[in-house]
């Protein structure tokens, strides 16, 4: 992406949410968009996904070509923070309904059923196939939300704060799943993230840190502390780098 700007009307004027930011998100990698509340994380995710483009300017490229909205819709999916699952259906029934709605009629019922079982196994829900979805845990519902989108085999997945509301074990399981989808299936995985643990933070391939609508860092999470130290912003010893992103981004914005 290049020079992405996002404006919203406010009291008869235009308020700038994103300030001409650049960056790249690669296949086979899991990237977290991070920053304090109100910094533009979800706005950027919406623009990248084509979910909200009114008010945006700049260029989004797909494989070195300007993004075509129809093509993007065919190869990507957007998983929102709230899980929209059918409470009275079982996990398998939910997947079956989705397969009939999303896959072409030329795909046989047997093939659809086989794909459903393969996805349930890959996503770690095969043992819960006959469980009513309202009885699933928060982490299991998030896995089901991902599985429902994987039916169309998207190469790009956008997820809005997928770990919010999950306990630490569910967070670890979900991040491991996203890593597997990125590394082993060569998908582009981009999510917004809010204050992960230090252990989870280091599992991401890339982090994209926003502050006041500007990108102040993109790269490996393991290099973020040295990067800011070079700019005289020091993380205290034994401090979670992810927690440090919030004050760090505020200080860095006002001093640069």
UniProtKB/TrEMBL annotation:
Compartments (UniProt record):
Membrane
| Entry GO CC | plasma membrane
What family does this belong to? Belongs to the ABC transporter superfamily. ABCG family. Eye pigment precursor importer (TC 3.A.1.204) subfamily.
- CDD domains in the record: ABCG_EPDR
Q: Name one GO molecular function term.
A: ATPase-coupled transmembrane transporter activity
**Protein name per the record:** ATP-binding cassette sub-family G member 1-like
Q: How does it sit in the membrane?
A: Multi-pass membrane protein
Q: Which UniProt keywords apply?
A: ATP-binding, Membrane, Nucleotide-binding, Transmembrane, Transmembrane helix, Transport
The record's listing under SUPFAM superfamilies reads: P-loop containing nucleoside triphosphate hydrolases (SSF52540)
Has keyword Nucleotide-binding?
A: yes
- What positions does the domain ABC transporter occupy? 2-237
Q: Which PANTHER family match?
A: ABC TRANSPORTER EXPRESSED IN TRACHEA, ISOFORM A, ABC TRANSPORTER G FAMILY MEMBER 28
Tell me what organism the protein belongs to. Answer: Aphis craccivora (Cowpea aphid)
């Amino acid at each position: 992406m290049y020079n992405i700007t996002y404006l919203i009307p406010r009291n008869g004027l235009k308020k700038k949410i994103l300030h001409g930011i650049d960056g790249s998100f690669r296949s086979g990698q899991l990237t977290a968009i991070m920053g304090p509340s109100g910094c533009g994380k979800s706005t950027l995710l919406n623009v990248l996904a084509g979910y909200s483009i009114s008010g945006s300017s700049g260029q989004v490229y797909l494989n070195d070509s300007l993004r075509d909205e129809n093509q993007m819709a065919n190869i990507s999916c957007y998983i929102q923070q709230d899980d929209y699952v059918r409470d009275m259906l079982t996990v398998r029934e939910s997947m079956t309904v989705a397969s009939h709605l999303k896959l072409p009629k030329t795909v046989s019922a047997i093939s659809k059923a086989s794909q459903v079982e393969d996805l349930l196994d890959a996503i770690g829900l095969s043992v819960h196939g006959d469980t009513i979805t309202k009885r699933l845990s928060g982490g299991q519902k998030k896995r089901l939300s991902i599985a429902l989108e994987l039916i169309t085999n998207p190469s790009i997945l956008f997820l809005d704060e997928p770990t919010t509301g999950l306990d630490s074990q569910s967070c670890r399981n979900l991040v491991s799943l996203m890593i597997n989808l990125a590394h082993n299936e060569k998908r582009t995985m981009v999510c917004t993230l809010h204050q992960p643990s230090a252990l989870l933070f280091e599992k991401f391939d890339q982090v994209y840190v926003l502050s006041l609508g500007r990108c102040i860092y993109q790269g490996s999470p393991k290099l973020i502390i040295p990067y800011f130290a070079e700019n005289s912003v020091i993380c205290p010893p034994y401090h979670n780098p992810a927690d440090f992103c919030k004050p760090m981004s505020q200080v860095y914005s006002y001093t640069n």
